[in-house]
């Protein structure tokens, strides 16, 4: 069973930066590098929304328009890790951030890490 654990969340002022990490484990039939990885977030009272995606090899990324140019997704397949560097944070970036792993149509989720942007 794939297990994902997010970390790095916290409170930050607008314009600040945070770096999130996602540690992946529990791989049996397939390695971490076989999984496309994504970040999602969910603000209070809103549905979970896509933030960023990265291909299995880490050679291509995709971002939601709301975070493009401010957030950077990356991964280290040797360490079974994924990251999200968040710069120029805004109030509307507040929410729980989730790590997501997808392989052959099957997805796994972490428990989430809270990010609060507040003055």
Report on the architecture of this protein:
There is one protein chain. This protein is mostly beta strands and about 120 residues long. The protein is about 0% helix and about 50% strand. The strands form two sheets. Strands 2, 4, 5, 6, 9, 10 and 11 form a seven-stranded mixed sheet that branches. Strands 1-3-8-7 form a four-stranded antiparallel sheet, with no helix packed on it. The chain is globular, with a radius of gyration of 14 Å. It starts with a strand and ends with a strand.
Span between termini: 40 Å
Q: From N to C, what is the helix and strand string?
A: EEEEEEEEEEE
Mean pLDDT: 96
Radius of gyration: 14 Å
- Quaternary status: single chain
- What would you call the structural class? mainly beta
Strand composition percent: over 45%
Low-confidence stretches: none
Count of discrete alpha- or pi-helical segments spanning 4 or more residues: 0
Percent of residues in helices comes to under 10%
Largest sheet, strands/sense/barrel: 7 strands, mixed
Count of DSSP strands: 11
What general form does the structure show? globular
Would you spell out the secondary-structure blueprint of this structure?
Elements: E1 3-7, E2 10-12, E3 18-25, E4 36-42, E5 49-54, E6 61-63, E7 71-76, E8 81-86, E9 95-103, E10 106-109, E11 113-117
Parallel strand pairs: 2-11
Antiparallel strand pairs: 1-3, 3-8, 4-5, 4-9, 5-6, 7-8, 9-10, 9-11
